Amino acid sequence: MKTYIARRLLALVPVALVVATVAFVLIHLAPGDPASVIAGPDASAADVQRIERQLGLDAPLPVQLVRWFGRLARGDLGESIFLRKPVTEAIMDRVEPTLLLTLFAIAISIVIGVPAGVLSARYHNTATDQVLMVIALLGVSIPNFLLGLLFILFFSVWLGWFPVAGYSPLEYGWLKTLRSLVLPAFALGLVQSALIARIARTSMLDVLREQFITAGRAKGLGEPAVIYKHALKNAMIPTVTIIGISFAILISGAVVVETVFNIPGLGRLIISAVLRRDYPVIQGVVLCIAGMYMLINLAVDFSYMLFDPRVKYQ
Amino acid sequence: MRESIAGRVLAVLAALALLGPAASPVTAQESPKPGGVFKAAMIGEPPTLDLHTTTAVIVQHITWQMYEGLFTYDKNYDAVPLLVESHTVADKGRTYTFKLRRGVKFHNGKEMTSADVVASLKRWGKLATPGKAVWRIVEGVEAKDPLTVVMFLKEPSAALLMGLARPNNGAVVYPKEIIDAAGDNAVKEYVGTGPYRFVEHRPDRHIKLARFKEYSARSDAPDGFGGKRTAYLDEILFIPVGDVAVRLAGVETGEYHYAQQIQQDQYDRVKGLPGLTPSIIKPANWSTAVLNHKQGLMTDKRIRQAFQAALDMEPIMAAGFGNKAFYRIDPSLMFAEQPQWYSRAGAALYNQRNPAKAKKLLAEAKYAGQPVRWITTKEYQWMYKNALVATQQLEAAGLKVDLQVVDWATLVQRRNKPEVWDVFSTGITFNPEPAFNTGTACNWPGWWCHADKEQWMEAMAREGDVKKRRAMWDKVQELFYEDVGRVKFGDSFSLDIIRTSVHGWQSKGELPLWNVWLK
Amino acid sequence: MSVIALPQAESARRRAGPHWTVLLVRRKTTLAGAILMALMLLLGILAPLIAGDPAHMDVSGRLAAPGRAHWFGTDDVGRDVWSRVVYGARLSLLVGAAVVALSFVVGIVCGVVAGYYHRLDNVVMRVMDGLMAFPAIVLAIALMAALGPSVVNVIVAIAVVYSPRVARVVRGSVLVIRETAYVEAARALGASDVILLARHVLPNCMSPVIVQGSFTFAASVLTEAALSFLGVGVPPYVPSWGVILAEGRLYIQQAPWLVLYPGVAIMLTIFGLNLFGDGLRDLLDPKIRGLATERQRAA
After folding, report:
1. Coil, strand or helix at A223
2. b/e per residue, A110-148, with b = 16+ CB within 10 A?
3. Which residues pair with B490 in a beta bridge?
4. Are A101 and A254 in contact (CB under 8 A)?
5. Angle formed by the axes of helices C118-132 and C151-178, to 10°?
6. Nearest-angstrom CA–CA distance, C235 and A95
7. What is the pLDDT of residues C136-181, one digit of tens each?
8. What is the pLDDT, as a whole number, of residue B208?
9. H or E stretch at C20
10. What span, in angstroms and rounded, lies between the C-alpha atoms of B503 and B494?
11. A interface mutation test: which of B49, B189, B204 has the most A CBs within 10 A?
12. Is C240 within 8 Å of C91 (Cβ atoms)?
């Protein structure tokens, strides 16, 4: 088991390096010299020079790259040009809504998706199965921002059940926070639940066809025991994988949905940074999100140890 | 049996519903109560909070609650004293002596003296667009004693007090130490003498102001923006909500007390909704395309004239403002609401709808198809739509247009650099004094500087006789059209929305939040 | 010309049952998907013939409800929504096809290089993994920030995002095929690397790649719409479904048709692509069951 953990952690390192390099390269992709792109056409020559020095853009590329890695290792993501404060601070300001929204959405997608998928597998090839799967496919086909817009129209404007936009920070009470996140979380979560349902169903079907299930049935185990004790546990591995991938999708979905609902999270931060050419923030947010995604994947990998005993003995 | 019980319950509920409103007493004139957090949904983030440095209206909206100047406007838009106790004019209108009010406190506890006023005025004269215009005739300004400021002018001015009273890019007073610390950059601390004080700015979240408990209010009755200002609200939150749909929806559901710049299309629907009151700002501004006279294609007069000739203002304005009650096709640079300044000079060149003439002019100018770089923004929806429709008309007349859509803060910065744009979109806000009309200013982006025009503007600033001033203004407007200083699309009125729980509201484009209370 | 007949092809022919079009039609859902796709394709291709000018503004007729003159109504500046939706289909088509083509080229090259040349495998795959460590839209947004708003840049950005997935699929296949006997034999007979790759390796990778392609198409339609909706995709005067949605949402109460029609168009297109992709997967790779493809679609 320890080797498994160690190997997984080690495998992260090159990926992390590539991620950091991609983030570094972003500034240099824009046509023209990066400092004047960042400073904007409104800046004077002195401003451009100041930014060059501030971001270390006057050094040769390899040196810049090394310095970049060094700063990242120290946790220094630079300073936002527009907000005039450290990027890490700007991110910490915004991480709460995005995280809560993503967690809420994952909860919804699991609570709806897994039972739907399992049910579909249980009643395989019946009308229930077909209907559920078509609905699921439809769900996967609808963009989450469109769903969000429709939710606003129905539930906020026409019915008035939920606030139309905005986010109530935790400091004002978690109940209000939850209420402000209901619509966006459902817009995100429902689409994702469709995907999870399809995966859960397929993996359940696969497992149900396995030998040991037939053996179990032959032994006389009741259907519920077959499904819930044996099949489900084994079907959980790919399902947990997809939940991990869902996290990444949900974070990216959060970026779009935050704009629809005017939630001041990481998504809005990166969009306004893009519009203002605030590159340090763009790099910082992109790194942060990629980092979260890598950690989630790691967690998913480790969770295999719970579900698949074979992993422990690798 | 069950049905009759249900029926009885329904009947009781119906009775209560009918009795309800009648049961609560109709209160006559409500007296203002302090308290509450006022949430204002604004079009976006302000580019800065230093009022001396920008004409962007959103900065004035926010900072006007915390900064004050020497003068302000009363309800007729005449200049009345604010931080000044009294003033005298001597030496044939060339020396102004201002006696400051005693005991006016800054938010940081310091008492205002003439040193602060002098430093602030000098800074305003150096950095602000109207300030620079005024400073052309200023010889010097000095502090005679801690409560007296003297201004020496090179020539008498009819517009000085109006200039000092102007809210937008206004001559507000900061503490001297803060000005010294800022040097040539924006101030780092926001301290003023106003009824609300700055608490915090969390970009993209809110700007928070709180009641300034030691506010030194005037004693005279409120009149327009003058007189006694009382801070009833505990706090004001300016929330940037770039999305007009979210702003509108938010004020409908009660999340915001005020939402600005709502599409005029929504007026018919909103005026019937309970809990909401539409606040029509009339006049608000005139929509315009500012042409670059310093560099680029628009330095050629024929191309400017072609631009002007090709346009049909009705669809441009209709696209931007929708509801006919909210716009006006009118050539006058000062609004019809001020008959003493309303002028039709040069009107023949306004709204020509003549693409053939435009094509001819372009041929004369040997226009070779270079794209006209037009910067606009979607943050003010109407600016984008005006530009879009105008672009269609211009392209039909043979001009190629490269429409660049950016956020407002970027546009405001970018327009200062003449090499990157040929045209940009903006609105010229209502200003009661033509001498400071940014639409005709030479030192404002666009840099429309014409020897004759400068001469008349300066003469007008000096001249005291209203009829003579009016004649000069007519000449300026005529030149505006003949030389194509800018291109005016039309007058527009804004739609803001407030909730009925907001009292003491004045429907003004300047957004005064003092003397406003929440029920 | 290959000296040795590929055993795979042989057995396939022996196993061959009904023709693939028959199999396609048999599965009703796949057929439905194919029809939807064909419909959208036709709309896009025939756009200049069946629709008016999507940019023409008739301001006096703004916000008109759907009727005879304007099938889908008009928007807030008087543009015909039907034309905009049709041209939006054209743009989505263009973007989708271009992204698929570009990601194929990049992905296949990288995947083949990684799969075939062991020494380069690690490097190339780490880079691909690194790129995949970013959620798709986040990376696309960051790339658009650097490149600036334009249709070409949107294509490039989305292609960069999805190439690694293609590369991974190709590499997987290449790894398998590389070890087969006939490839060894062909190499022993002196066939050069290039010929081996082109004639033997590549054709056998194509099935999973094609399946991946259909998902990439669907994903790029979605991603472009999302980017444009957010304002960081195509410039606002280009008729894209995302742009139409973004502009239409301000009028969602007075003119719901502005959101409904492009919304339905997006849904139908992606729905069709997904249905078709599912069917294609079953057809081409009966061995790869639901799991891997679901993961492909998700990732």
Report:
1. helix
2. bebbbebbbbbbbeeeeeebeebbeebbbbbbbbbbbbb
3. B287
4. yes
5. 140
6. 29
7. 888 898 888 888 888 999 999 999 999 998 898 888 888 877 777 6
8. 96
9. helix C20-26
10. 20
11. B204
12. yes
Q: How far is B318 from chain C (nearest CA, A)?
A: 7
Which one, of B190, B50, B48, lies nearest residue B127 by Cα?
A: B50
Which residue from B38, B440, B85 is spatially nearest to B259, judged by alpha carbons?
Answer: B38
Decide if B414 touches A, using CB distance below 8 A: yes
Give CA–CA dist C274/A280, Å, rounded: 37
Q: Which of A13, A22, A203 would best serve as a mutation to test chain C binding (most C beta carbons within 10 A)?
A: A22
Tell me how far CA of residue C230 lies from CA of A42, A152, C173, in angstroms: 25, 17, 37
Name the nearest CA neighbour of B490 among B316, B290, B322, B336: B316
With an 8 Å Cβ cutoff, are C134 and A289 in contact? Answer: yes
Q: Please give, rounded to a whole number of angstroms, the shortest distance from the CA of B205 to a CA of chain A.
A: 7
What residue type is A276 in one-letter code? R
Strand ranges in B340-443 using DSSP code E only, listed in sequence order: 372-377, 401-406, 423-429
Instruction: Please check whether residue C107 is in contact with residue C167, taking contact to mean a CB–CB distance below 8 angstroms.
Output: yes
Mutual angle of helices C81-116 and C202-230, in 10-degree steps? 140
Nearest residue, CB atoms, B388 vs list C237, C250, C253: C237
Interface of B with A in 242-271 (CB under 8 A): 243, 246, 249-250, 252-253, 255
Q: How far apart are CA B421 and CA B405, in angstroms?
A: 12
Which amino acid appears at position A96 of this protein?
A: E
Compute the nearest-CA separation of B255 from chain A (Å): 8
C125 CB within 8 Å of a chain A CB = no
**Is residue B266 scored above 70 in pLDDT?**
yes
- The model's pLDDT over B3-46, given as tens digits with 9 standing for 90+, comes to 444 445 444 444 444 444 443 333 445 688 899 999 999 988 88
Distance CA B378, CA B489 (A): 17
| DSSP code, position A86 | B
pTM beyond 0.90: no
User: Both tokens of residue C117?
Assistant: 């040349």
* Residue C273, token pair as written in the block: 């692509």
What letter would DSSP give residue B312? -
Higher pLDDT: A175 or B103? It is B103
- Whether A294 has its CB under 8 Å from any CB of chain C: the answer is yes
Distances (CA, A) of B477 to B132, B424, B453: 21, 20, 9
Distance, in Å, from the CA atom of C256 to the CA atom of B221, rounded to the nearest integer, reads: 49
**Residue C164 in tokens:** 């690694």
CA dist., res. C47 & res. C43, Å (int):
6
| Cα(A104)–Cα(A91) distance, integer angstroms | 20
SS3 of residue B380 by DSSP:
coil
Three-state DSSP string of B261-308: CCCHHHHHHHCCCCCEEEEEEEEEEEEEEEECCCCCHHHCHHHHHHHH
